[in-house]
Amino acid sequence: MPEQFPAQQQARQPGLESEMRPEPDHAPRYPGAGRLTGQVALISGGDSGIGRAVAVAMAREGASIAILHTDREAGDAIDTVELIEAEGGQALTMAGDIGSEDFCRSAVDATLARFGRLDVLVNNAAEQHPQDDLTKIGAAQLERTFRTNVFGYFFLTKAALPHLGDGAAIINTTSVTAYKGSGHLIDYAATRGAIVAFTRSLADSLNQRGIRVNAVAPGPIWTPLIPASFPPDRVAQHGQATPMGRAGQPNEVAPCYVFLACKDSSYMTGQVLHPNGGTPVNG
């Protein structure tokens, strides 16, 4: 198959959007309709990739945005703030490790101090470390992957819950790998499966409070995680195994989050949306 992207690789995670060629497409494809006017969204991993596209799309719909990122991603975060402000939104950025419960508490506190409320929580930050052989996945890698991809979602949700009211929305990023598996991302796929169960269980738990909990399970998307995870030849072929024959762009995924955050999805909770290039899944 021909290359979809130029062969490229970044030396470490998290990858940087500013170093990708071409850069991912984050720009919303439709005019705003005020669907999130006056609301505040907190997005982990909101500096780049899917998180950036979600932040900009929600800002276009009238939301104020708080984004969480690592220290290394500060430059990408500054760019995202400029994009949010270009949509007329207000933005707050915070650097830290969502695997730390203390940081998650401080992030929620800072969001409330700046904006006075919290309406939408997007648990999106994640990491992955390819390894084809289970016996080579050490305890340190296993704990690190689960700490970011599962513990971080628990910690941030736990910190946010006392401040979410009737009508609030929690949206979790999972993955197509939760449904079809991945022989070279065994620990990562396991975390994504855990998030599906977390989403369904939390939705059931919060029904009586009027808080909806849903998830999005993207397929292969052109984000900084890709060149930071895989060798150049594989990056060049990213997404070609999907039925559509290509990777998706972040702005093809972001509308799922906007939909799940606003009243358009008022009769949905405990569900998962699948922007994955046509891969059939169950659930």
TrEMBL record:
Presence of the UniProt keyword Oxidoreductase in the record: yes
Domain Ketoreductase: 39-225
Biased composition, class Basic and acidic residues, residue ranges: 18-28
InterPro entries associated with the record: KR_dom, NAD(P)-bd_dom_sf, SDR_fam
A molecular function GO annotation: oxidoreductase activity, acting on CH-OH group of donors
UniProt keyword list: Oxidoreductase
Region (Disordered): 1-34
Pfam families: adh_short_C2
Compositionally biased region (Polar residues): 1-12
Keyword Signal: no
SUPFAM superfamilies (alphabetical): NAD(P)-binding Rossmann-fold domains
Family: Belongs to the short-chain dehydrogenases/reductases (SDR) family.
Protein name from the UniProt record: NAD(P)-dependent dehydrogenase (Short-subunit alcohol dehydrogenase family)
